Amino acid sequence: MHLGINGRKALVCGASSGLGLACATALVQEGVHVVMVARTLEPLVQAALTLEALQGGPVSFVAADVGTSEGRARIFAAHPDFDIVVTNAGGPPPGDFRQWGRDDWIQALDANMLAPIEIIKTVVDGMMTRGF
Question: In sequence order, which residues have a C-beta less than 8 Å from that of residue 114 and are 6 or more positions away?
Fold first, then answer.
């Protein structure tokens, strides 16, 4: 499929496995420069090597926790501008939600809502300037 995004630059969070890796793979196949982010370096490197083997768009990676201001700063210090952003993180722990404590909910909200908002705030002006 040709989406007209060849040559664009994408940030994909949680990109070392699962849904994040699937998104990164599809973007690389479209010729997008993908910056993969995950917390753990070793699986991130392995995932990046797998995507590089596809010989699509360029692949970069940053090991960082997007849920922290330090992690986000590390990402944007290495790659300040993005045209596409895929926010992706794990949810609350599996199980019966009636058993989850306040800290479980706060951690899930932080990872799945507050961190993405901070990422979007950082990139949205540049994305709008580039018309994307």
Answer: none
